[in-house]
Amino acid sequence: MPVLTRRHLLQSGLGAVAVALLPRGAVALPVSYQLTAKRVAKTLPGCIGPSDLWLYDDGRNETLPIVLRATRGEGFTATLKNELAEHTAIHWHGVRVPHKMDGVPYITQPPVRPGESFEYSFAPPDPGTFFFHPHCNTVEALGRGLAGVLIVDDPRDQGLFDIEHVIALKDWRVQNDGGFEDFLTDAGAAKAGSFGSLRTANGMVAPTISVPPGARVRLRILNLDSTRIPQLDLPGAKAVVIATDGNACAPFALQGWRLGPAMRADVAFIAPEKPGVEIPLQDIFSTKPRVLARIVTAGEAMRSTKATLRLPEAELPQPDLKAAQKLEFTLLAGNPDPALQAWAKEMGVSPDEICLTQKVFWSINRRVWPGMGEGALPPPLAELKSGRSYIAELFNGTPHQHPMHLHGHTFRVLGSSERDLPPHWADTVLVRPKERVRIAFVAGQPGDWMFHCHIIEHQETGMMGYLRVA
Ligand code: C2O
Ligand code: CU
Description:
Bound molecules: CU-O-CU linkage, copper (II) ion
Shape: globular
Distance between the termini: 41 Å
Number of helices: 4
Low-confidence stretches: 1-24
Largest sheet: 7 strands, mixed
Number of strands: 33
Structural class: mainly beta
C-alpha cells in the first residue's frame, strides 16, 4: 500500500476515484465514502479454497484491509450499508468523534439492521493512524476481516517524509481449505486468546514493501488482530516510534515495542543508501523471530540531508495532573456477578444475542459485562464530569496481558510500576501481568464511553464496561 505524501486519494460519493496531488499547504477537500459491509469469497494466502470474509467494500477494494483518508479538521463522511445477515455499526477506533458517531449499538446508535444504512459524518479533530470496526459479535466480524484503516492527514507534516506505507497486521484462524476455526474458544478466551495460524501484513504473507534508497520512511503499523501481541523490530534500520496510536510522541527506539491488538505505531527511519537492501519487519516475541514484512530499497535514490524524524507535537486536551481526580480499574478473572446477572435477566437484556456476553472469564473492578440491549444498560464503571482531569490506575491482577481501550478519549500514559514506559498519548494501552499503568485524561464529551480489553475474546467474556461522562 504505497502512499506518497501529499497525494490524497479522494473518492466521490458515487464511487469514482480521483487522485489529486496537493501542493504543500493546499486546502484539502471534504471526503465521502460509501462502505458496504458484505460477505466476499476470497482465497487467503496458502489456502486451496476461498474463505467467507466479511469486508467493507468501498468500490475500490484495492487493499486488504481498505484504507480511507481524511484530513484533520475537514469533513469526513462514510455511509455504511449493511449487506450482512446480522446487524452491525462502525466504531472509529481512537478518533475523538461526537458521541453519536462512536458506533456502539444500543449505546451510541441503534444497530444498523441488514439492508439498512447509516451515515457517519464528523471532522476528525486529531491527525493520525486509526482504524474502524464493528462493535457487536466483534470476535467473528474481525476474525472474518471486517475492519478498515483510516488515516487522518496532518497538514502540518506534509513533506516531512519521502514515502509512507501502511502495514496492517492480522492473523487468520483459517484452515487449508479456507474454512475458519471457531473464533472464540473457551481455552483461548480464558487465557491469552485463540491465535490465528496464518499471519499476514496487508493480507499477504511477509510482503515486500519497497522504499527509495536514502528516503525518509514512515511506516504506519497497525495491529488489527484480535489476539496476537507482536514485539516489533526492524533490524538494520535505526527505527524510532514517532507516533503511538496515531499521536505524535518524543521519538523512542522501536526495538521490542509491544503492539497489542488495536494499537498502532508510526515508525520512521532513513532507508539505506544502496538499492536492494532488505530490512525485515520482525516480531521478536519468541526466540525465533518471525518476519512480518520485508522493506526493500529500490528505485531512484533520494538524499535526505535534513532528516527530522519527528512529527509536529500532538495537540490534545492536557490533563491537569495536580487537580486530577483518581480512578482505579482492577482487571481480574471474572465470575458472573449475581446482581448484574439478575439485572440482565430482569431487563431482558439484548434480545439480539450477538451483543450478549455468553461466557464469563474476566472482570473490571470485579464486575462482569453482562451484555446490552435496547434501553438497558448496566451501571457505569465510573461517572465523570466533562472537562475535569482524571488519573486512572489500571492494575492487572491476571497472568495475561490486556490492551485496554477507552472510547472517545486520547489519554496520556504516564508510566508503569514495572518498566520504563516512555510517556505517550494513546487510546489503547497494554497492561502486563502484575503491572500498574497510570493514565491521565480530560473527560470529553458527555455520554457513555466504552472501556474494554481489545483482546476481543476477553472483551466478549466480561472485560468490558463504560465510563459515563456528564
Ligand atoms: Cu476498537 Cu471498543 O474498540
Ligand atoms: Cu484482555
